[in-house]
Prior knowledge:
The chain contains nine helices and ten strands. The protein is α/β, with parallel strands linked by helices. Helices cover 38% and strands 15% of the residues. Helix 1 packs across helix 2, helix 5 crosses helix 6 (184-196) and helix 7 (247-261) crosses helix 8. The chain has two domains: 6-38 and 161-307, Rossmann fold (3-Layer(aba) Sandwich); 44-144, Rossmann fold, CATH 3.40.50.
Amino acid sequence: MIYSSVIDCIGHTPLVRLGRLFAGSxxxxxxxxxxxxPGGSAKxxxxxxxxxxxxxSGAIHRGTHLLESTSGNLGIALxxxxxxxxVQLTCVVDPKISRTNLEIIKRLGAxxxxxxxxxxxxxxxxxxxxxxxxxxxELPGGLWLNQYANENNWLAHxxxxxxxxxxxxxxxxxxxxxxxxTTGTIRGVAKRLKETNPRLKVVAVDxxxxxxxxxxxxxxxIPGIGASRVPELYxxxxxxxxxxxxxxxxxxxxxxxxxxxxxxxxxxxGAVIAGIRxxxxxxxxxxxxxxxxxxxxxxxxxxxxxxxxxxxIGDMMRDSVAA
Length: 323
């Protein structure tokens, strides 16, 4: 098959059994490799769906200037899709974005607006959102896509990611583990999978220090997981339980995933593996567990996979606990 555009290649990512990483466990752990999307992450799906639905409705057109707050992956995905449809895009980012992600967004033709002021939670998310709103009011044709509230975010995963899992697996899924940020992925996939198995248990993996589920804010350094605000998309009815993991646990699980399975994944993938490990003793033998590995690891050579960065994060975590 020959596709007409790179964005037509989004989706249909493979499922892989993590038999080496979970060797000896009575649980069947299967991962959907969302890192194999052409833009390198699960964010390709909502980027495509949001823009194409906007084009269909007329909300987006050649004169629109798209705006979004991003920690990296969604910015790359939006830049790829916006370039294909010849629509302007500005990504509002912060200093925690990896240098590689920043460069990819630029190379794909998006404009960059960097905020540097910490928000009231000690992160940058709320500062980024305020800047996006300001740009939307100032720029001709400005339109904030708002991944945190846009219904097409979770619908992309309901109609595609979740459907693919159902179609590719022979039999039901017992447990679904998903790393959360906007909560769009977990909402869409959970809704689709619960249609085939109403007894499915959905576990959200969140970052220690994220406020999505009411826990107090703390410093966080790994992008792509957790949030400094409760997303409008958050639907408590789709989530049965939550497990929190810290940055060190995410880093360690990234390294183990690479060593055991040869999968070079990003920090949010390490987080979901860490979450499964913490929860494993609570799962019944023979259970089938599905998770998503959201993004590639090549973009985090200067962070997650850099020993100096790892030590620096470890020191900051210890200082934070001591304080």
